């Protein structure tokens, strides 16, 4: 089915027609329509137009109103103040557009006509290292942007740029050679993520202690780095064991986060090794990068250190080694030339903003990025504790991500158990996980990514306020009403008048398509979260003011059931795009 034009776009079109009929010179003027508290919409564009035409804004506004023919969409247009138009639409127009949305599986949300291919770089854990609270935001924000962009018709390529290369692997591999059973498993059955991480942790600590205390081991470990970089078969095979063991652990954490991570999407730093030399050659031969004290560097006029001297991006070190810049630039080459990306989206900590600014500018100078291909860092802030300081354990260590998620599930299960009337223990456990993980994701996604946010589990699993639990309960309440409706079915009745809270709910539902387009274009999942919270709030007001199953007439029951069902579908679709489940019963 074709997308459904929103009431806002229909009203905009009627105003534009009126403008061009009344003022032919202003045919292309923008009415500047927006939602309003005084009426359904307000148009402010005539003020600027009057200035341009040197006319009286109120007189021009009156002319425009008179030029709009009578129709079944616009109920009333009032000229207010110095030439604002306050516009009220008819009740039947609200129900008509909602009925068109309800008839479409996509709720009338349009596809983006200029959709391309976006590579999203997100969820980037490090091999042989535990995932901590700092890994949460990249994973959650990135996964939501994958869903949102795919829903608008974008071709999305997921990339998990895991840290799987570097000098520390010399230490780990050499230790494993000398202690060959350190990664052995306790049984032949499926290995848990906890066991895999515990093996890796133990090996990492033991190898680090030996590296720091034994000069001879340090020398052997450094020689092993050379073997690894040279592609020695035995060394690479042992390196692969670390990667595989780490993946068992990563995937267990992502599974708990209810996230779909596919093996083919994991392309770590090592995936670009074969491109590094050529990347450096291209940059040097094109003059984008120059040799400075033996290192291959890119300089920028606007990037200076505290001493006022230019800070370069070092692509290759003076000893011939490659830094992150060489890998990141090679990844851009691969994503643009091989994956045919039109957009590159990096969901990366704001503290890496300078690095990515320099990398993107270098890629532009090299011609890999241009007007047709853009790169954007979706930079995110820090997760803070309740005290507003970076989130740490009492011992001052970084909080393990698994511990955080387990605690969220425990808290949420307690809330579900308290409210549950007819749920089994198995259902409480399942809903507890859906509510707990949803709470963690929503707290993250409802904050603008660039801002820090406080991790407060008590607040996150609260039934009141701007939480996912509030949204999930609104959805479950609607499902309960629909189950109790018996023979009464949701049917749109355009002939019925609407109460104020029905109108407010209907107008908000109608804005879903435009909101999705804005969220996708701005890479701003917090806007979708805000929309859904407002939707649940409008529904709560409607529910308290308008009896549904005990409405005055059978037609009114059907119409209100129709509003309930469309609200539930919109909540379900919106929450799914954020990666949050909506249980049918809570």
TrEMBL record:
Any Gene Ontology biological process: arginyl-tRNA aminoacylation
Q: Which GO terms describe its cellular component?
A: cytoplasm
Primary location: cytoplasm
Report whether Nucleotide-binding shows up as a keyword of the record. yes
- Reaction catalysis annotation: tRNA(Arg) + L-arginine + ATP = L-arginyl-tRNA(Arg) + AMP + diphosphate
**What is this enzyme's class at the first EC digit?**
ligase
What residue stretches are annotated with the Arginyl tRNA synthetase N-terminal domain? Answer: 9-89
Cellular compartments annotated: Cytoplasm
Q: Which InterPro entries match?
A: aa-tRNA-synth_I_CS, Arg-tRNA-ligase, Arg-tRNA-synth_N, Arg-tRNA-synth_N_sf, ArgRS_core, DALR_anticod-bd, Rossmann-like_a/b/a_fold, tRNAsynth_Ia_anticodon-bd
Q: What EC number(s) does the entry state?
A: 6.1.1.19
Q: Matching PANTHER family, A to Z?
A: ARGININE--TRNA LIGASE, CYTOPLASMIC, ARGINYL-TRNA SYNTHETASE
How the protein assembles, per its UniProt entry? Monomer.
Q: What is this protein called?
A: Arginine--tRNA ligase
What lineage is on file? Bacteria, Bacillati, Actinomycetota, Actinomycetes, Kitasatosporales
Which gene produces this protein?
A: argS
